[in-house]
Specification:
single chain, about 25% helix, alpha+beta, eight-stranded antiparallel barrel
Length: about 140
């Protein structure tokens, strides 16, 4: 009978220790999860441009209004960039070479819809629409972000 009492006491002590370890693990997991949620999100550097352009005369009729304004948000990490053109938000893949930026906007079928090219040294801006055979040429200025 004394052996049974000793075994039951050992089992109770083991049970208490295992419950404490499980509680400690769950509390540690909860604290580490909260810590990860509270970390500030890293934001990549972005370049904000305001571009004003006019359709090239040799490529087709001028569309009214003659001048079009586009707002570009270029992601300097070479990921996705945003284009705000006539109230429509577009997204495209960014290619950065030296001081020129190329944004390729594609449709759902992965066909190239428009190509935006910005030369940073000269401040020139060019939009090529391969489907409509039109080119938009203009200048860019740094905008507020």
């Amino acid at each position: 009978m004394n052996a049974d009492i000793r075994n039951s006491l050992r089992n109770i002590n083991y049970l208490k220790n295992s419950i404490h370890i499980k509680n400690f693990r769950s509390i540690l997991l909860l604290i580490s999860g909260l810590h990860l949620l509270m970390l500030p999100q890293a934001r990549s550097e972005q370049l904000f441009l305001t571009c004003i352009a006019k359709y090239e005369i040799n490529r087709g009729e001028l569309i009214k209004p003659d001048w079009e304004t586009s707002y570009l948000t270029i992601n300097l990490d070479g990921l996705k960039s945003k284009i705000f053109d006539n109230g429509i938000e577009k997204e495209g893949r960014t290619l950065i070479r030296r001081n020129s930026y190329t944004i390729t906007h594609r449709d759902n079928r992965n066909r190239i819809k428009t190509i935006y090219k910005v030369n940073g040294t000269h401040g020139t801006y060019k939009v090529e629409s391969p489907q409509r055979y039109r080119t938009l040429i203009g200048t860019c200025q740094k905008g507020r972000g």
